[in-house]
Amino acid sequence: WSLRYGAILTAGVAAINGIVINSIFRRKLKLRLNGLKFSIIFLSSGSAILEYICHETYITEQIVLFHHKCLPCLELKAIAMQQASSLLYTLIATPTINLAIAGTIGYRIPHIFELKEVWKLFWSVIRPEGRTLLVLFLCNMFVAGIVTYSEYTSMRK
Asked: What residue ranges are annotated as transmembrane (predicted)?
């Protein structure tokens, strides 16, 4: 099951990360339904597609072709790619998209070149949600590690 559905599972977790982080920013900026479809589709599908391609290309392909002998190295690589494509990508793209939507509908937001003000806004949204981000981080780590281990052991049988 893991070789067939493993990358899809990791992509699904990345999509959930995109939806959760997007809802955090939208709630803080009070955007309600303005640009909701665009932001959810872009963030969830973008992170899911990125994770699917990364996992298939750099993890599953190496397992199937027997290029990797070190399972912990491969698991760490999978976890790092999962974190980068689901959390890091979403944490960079979400404020950008939602601030653009807020600026379009007329909310007062800091200009993009006022880095100090943009950073204060970003930090004011992220800091209270530290536990949520920690749970997302741990779920990503768990899923990427288990899927990679399962793929590796199914090929070694």
From this structure: 6-25, 87-110, 130-149
